[in-house]
Amino acid sequence: MPKRVGVIDLGSNSARLVIFERTSRFGFFILAEHKIKVRLGEGAYENGGVLQPAAMQKCLDAFVEFKELLQKYGAKRVLCVGTSALRDAPNGGEFIKLVFKKTKIAIRKIDGESEAYFGGYAAHNLLSDFKEGVSVDIGGGSTELARIKNGKIEAKISLNLGTVRLKELFFDKGDMAGLYGYVNEAISAVGDEFASSNLIAMGGSARALSNAIMAIENYPIKIVHNYCYDYEKYAPFFSKLIGAKTLELAKFPIKKERYDTIREGAIIFSEIAKKIGAKSVITSGVGVREGVFLGSILHGANLPKNFNPSLKSLQDRFASESSHADKFAKALFSVLFSLHKLEDRYIGPLCYAAKLCEIGARLGFYAKHESAASMVLNGLNYRTSHEQKALIAAIIAMHGKPNLSPNFANLSEILPNERTLAWLSFLCEFARILNENALKNLEFKFENLTLQIAGAKNKLMLKDSLRKLSKPAVFAINFI
Fold it and tell me: Which phi and psi (to 5°) does residue 450 adopt?
């Protein structure tokens, strides 16, 4: 597999190109993302699914631009899938040939169950831990559901429900009774096997709804992936949005580009949420594109259980070649437990912070810890909850100090108490200092309020650094 891979997802409403860059076997990040609203399905739903000439030409023009971008980024492999509008179209094959002739990009037309699988597969592998849930991917022409449970996708279904489809067939004609009848008939195919309290929201409309709720809450983290909220709490908001007139949409925190289909998306989202009995919503920033990419490197398997591709990617790009900081942090957490008495759930974030606390040095020595914290907030996305990510960033930004930096004070609402932060920051900085002094094999023992460290005797710089470190409790440090 080449270092850079382009994945194109051609939907009924938009075509999106994502450039993935691999940093190691399973470590990767998104280098670039480009979206063009091609509206390939425009006019098709009123004409037996036949793709219209103007829509095909606009989409072809988009592929020409994508080809130029793929060459610019040096992507050596291109994976392209076409979804609802393409599979519904009697002339879909003709369009696929046209695109290949013009750009040499081969479009793979996937069926609805495959589309549902790729979305669910990406969510299962790249969201933070969840025991079970149903991914709901709302597109322009269709909506896909995947039941995720016991570490696998147990059921899949594709519904002919999409925002552009509803807009053309019903909404633009003011036929709301017909719209709801059509939606309810389609959703009746969703069986009891999809019942779940967790709805995993995918697709542009669902993410736009999550972004709107984040704006209403003045939520401190602006990345929508892994954002969670209570569905029932915001059901009245969805109802108001659905009932709003076009000129009233400016009152809602919705981007203008979404005005033409957001109400249709909210209807689909709400009706499916009620159908499956959803209580909470987990927003997924990943979907079909990530599923296709992961499938190409994992061949249908899942990522290793304790492996984080974002963490590995940050380490590959920015961390020093060898570090024992996470090992020291875990050992210090254990040996000083009688003082801090923190729950074991903090060990993971502490070790992540220890692994990443020095990555900001690649940007420059000064303010390197705040740089590293910002890099964590913006780059540690996969398999990490917002609370975990905020905690890791805060630990690094505090740099061993007892108080959170003002630049990160907005995170306080999703962080643990000050005492917990002070201890975790202290442990991380202690571990960083030990690692900075090129120490490897150390032994720790704590008794009579004294931390004894074997293997670091006669290290003057180490002793000076530790004297400056603010302890969250009174105890001595002795090197033997």
Answer: -130, 125
